[in-house]
Amino acid sequence: MDLSQRKQKILKAVIDEYIGTAEPVGSRAISKKDDLGLSSATIRNEMADLEEMGYLIQPHTSAGRIPTDIGYRFYVNSLMKRYKMSVEALEKLNMIMAERVNHLEMIIKKASLIASTLTEYTTVVTSPKLNSSVIKKLELINIGHGNVMALIITGAGMVKNQSVAISLSDEQALELSKIISDRISGRTADELTFDIIKEIEDAAAKSVDIPSKVLINILNFVYEAIDSLDETEIYVNNAKSILSYPEFSDTKKAREMLEFLESKENLVKMIGTPKDGVDVKIGTENEFAELENSSLVTVNYKVGDKVVGRIGVIGPKRMNYAKVIASLDCISNQIDKILGEMYREESEE
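The structure assignment produced for this chain is given below.
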């Protein structure tokens, strides 16, 4: 059943009021809105109709009404006004994101922090899948006491490192680094075949006087590090912000939510499959029971036309959707721009 213009105005007024106060909204509060021009009795009747239609609910007999998930969905799809970011906020975002950072992980962490600051909610960001990223080099650094630090560096600035229990002189470490880097530099992870690894093994056997077992340990690290480039990393910021909202004043609910946010597996599933544009999931639209009192807003970020990661905001269902959507849109555009420049530089090297 379609909502009349009057019902839509009243529903919007109820949700706007509830977003700001977190208190059930009565007809008297709505009647004071100058732009409605309706009596308290008329508003009360319309609110009763909206409740019967499933858009509002009355939590207590003597209380006002609050939106249902259906009410929020109609609000997000049809009623909320577009939020315009302030010039000050945009300038600050541009300034922070424009600071030159060559390390991909720092860019993503910075984006998470900015999103949390702008929205005041919990943010979740997935790192890009880097199996298509060009490997820049491998370095072996003698750190003494029979240990070598092995580092793989991608053109995008991602670094994987691990201490390997082997004894190499500085000269051996330098020579072996060159042998391996010469054969993996400029390649993507999925271009590293068994034949290339065998070639590294043969060249090392001729040039570096080290036991084959030592070389195998290093090559195992290369395999594992390259394989892990395709793993999704999750960065969570401001998780404890949920404790400041009355929806989570119940200790049990708050604890369940915080425990949920500590699980990487949950967060990867929660942030979900990439979709075009901004995606909003309200309450029970989320697949996890822990999120039935929350909303999740997500957006992709890209390199060119390829989606490589997602950034999301979790908050109470009465979140300021317009502000969150506008903030995420701006941040994702900034990430797209920075990653585009970074990967262009990588491909030109």
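Interim note for the steering committee: The beta strands are 56-57, 66-67, 122-126, 135-144, 147-154, 159-164, 234-237, 279-282, 294-303, 306-316. The first strand starts at residue 56 and ends at 57.
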